[in-house]
Amino acid sequence: MIDLVGKRNWFFLISAIVIIPGIISLAVFGLKPGVDFSSGTAMTLSFDKGVELSQLRQELTDLGYDKAVVQPAGEGDFFVRLPELSSEQTTNLKDSLQTGLDTNITISSLYSVSPIVAAGTVRNTFIAVVVAAIGILLYISWAFRKMPKPIRWGTCAIIALLHDLVVVIAVFSILGWVAGVEVDALFVTGVLAVVGVSVNNIVVVFDRIRENMKRGVSRDFEVVANYGIIESLGRSLNTGLATLFVIVALYLLGGATTHTLVLALMIGIATGIYSSLCIAGQLLVVWEKGLSPRKKVATSPA
Amino acid sequence: MKRGNTPLLIFILVLFGFCLWVIWPGNGIFGRNEFTLGLDLKGGSHLVYQIDLSKKDPAQSDADVIDGVKSKIERRVNAYGVTEPIVQSITNERGSFVLVQLPGVKDIDQALKLIGQTAELDFEERVVDSSGNPVLDENGNQEWVIAKAKGSDGQERELTGKYLKPNAQVVLTSQTNEPEVAFEWNSEGAVLFEQITQRNLQKPLGIFLDNQLISAPTVQAVIKDKGVITGLNLEEARTLAIQLNSGSLDVPLTLVERRDIGATMGEDSLKKSLMAGIIGSAMVVLFMIAYYRFSGFVACLALVVFVVLNLAVFKLIPVVLTLPGIAGFLVSVGMGVDGNVLVAERLKEELRRGRTLGAAIEEGFRQSWSAILDANVTVFIACAVLYWLGNTFGNFLVLGFATTLFIGTALSMFTQVVVTRTFLRTLVGLGVAKSPGAYGVAKQ
After folding, report:
1. Which domains does chain B have, with CATH numbers?
2. Is the whole-model pTM more than 0.90?
3. Which tens digits make up the pLDDT trace of A65-88?
4. Do B94 and A116 touch (CB under 8 A)?
């Protein structure tokens, strides 16, 4: 049988390799807030005639919008992010660009948020995260009431959950300064959905470990834990894969609107599979026995 | 075959048949014959205005002002000719807002003018000095003052749009074919207008909309009950007529959020999502069959039932489908096989332990139920929080995701357990797939 518990220090190391740079990136660069959170006007422009990125950028600078963020949005379209514009300013900008670039322009999507709305969004997001955390904590304390040491098991579940969330947020922080990926309300949606899926994976694994303890699989908790994890392997991998098939298809083929949502789900669910198999149960063992892996005695249950 | 299985099977098949009929294009009950698409899929505009309550008349209550604004905007939007608009008022700790959704609106600039303007119309007289010469301001423009006259009860009143009958309309002048807005005064307005035209004969009378001069025609005769406003293009005339009929807003509005989605963009997104859904689901089906063989096949049958049931629910409730909503639904398709995976894994174990097929199936379901239930509770918690979040944001995208993920997860619990078990029992009862190998158990 594969010994996933014995290799726990390797797994912790792998996680650290992702998480530590991620946390540094978060501390240094933070997340790149989208229009939802920071206010402003974002729009996708379609041109009748091909326009170069540099041309558009130059034209915007000439019009006084030198801080505009301009990114290609596929099929010759461009995404432009500006400080908040009134509807008159938007119309004027479009007209000036049409004249300047000598082409007809269609604003194929526009999203404009004023500071008052953005401030409310930030506040509500914060409340939602706190409420979700309380809900999940209540759930965990209920789900683990049957466990031998509920606090210990609950704590390990929460650490594994935080692990998943930190990975998602850290990756978005890195993508923010590498690829200009912004976080918006849909990113928050994705992260909260990841919480739901991730906790559920951990619970399934812990449930198996507990079942094996009751059955008296072995006296050695390390063996019991490994046995439970291996038994959950098929389920965790297969459900996770099935979900990822759909999500990857959505990411590759679906529209740009849901990109942040789908990307957060994709990273979160993949990390969730890993942490439920390689981190959560292993944490329990560490709490029980300390960091040093046991000597190779019994790889299969007694 | 287990007792009670046949009625259950019939029930599932009838339900499935009904739902299949429902989702067929053009079919439906309660008049719900089409899926309801959100703004991001059919294109349109989502606007949020802040209602400036600090400018209200102190005699009015906040609630009255908000209701007034909402109903006037509703009238404006309906008169503009948008299909299925949504107008909602939202009050939270940041203030009072009115949310307007205009699906399929083409000329957003015009719609913005129509909705957001206070549209306070008034009639003004020239300010003249003692010798009767016009008084000019520092820019050399004529100064104006609101025309007042004695009302029917002898009180001095300003002549404003509030004395108009709500039947203003755009007409084209017979000679020049130019648009003008024809209006009628109510009885009080007629009393005022008569006195004002009387004393302004052969003098200009300024017509102001939100303190902007639209036109200043010279009064040719004493008029009582009606008049026309000229000096507008056709669009402006149309907008003004709607605004006059719906009444001016009691307080100014500020546009604080605006989201426009072009119709082609929406259509394109819908196609892309459907394609992603089909390919993703096909991969799930192939994977389940390849890995779990017969259990996987049955799981896929259950998945088909799940998808059809789900779509029927979307159509009948109706759920407003948005892009994130479709993503939520597809995620529930992927996660929806979780129950099947749990059961199929248990089934394999029980078979390996040497149980008979029938016993293994029953045991597999019995043992998996608590895990399936537990597992979905966390998703429900997340959905509940997201629903609240989407609601307070007024963010229909977040709301869409939470709604479809919740419905999908709830329905999948039913299909994973009840439908899969019924199908398995039936097929096994018929003698299909007897060997453990058909369930992915390697021969020992």
Report:
1. 5-37+262-439 (1.20.1640.10), 40-116+255-260 (3.30.70.3220), 121-246 (3.30.1360.200)
2. no
3. 888 888 887 778 888 888 888 888
4. yes
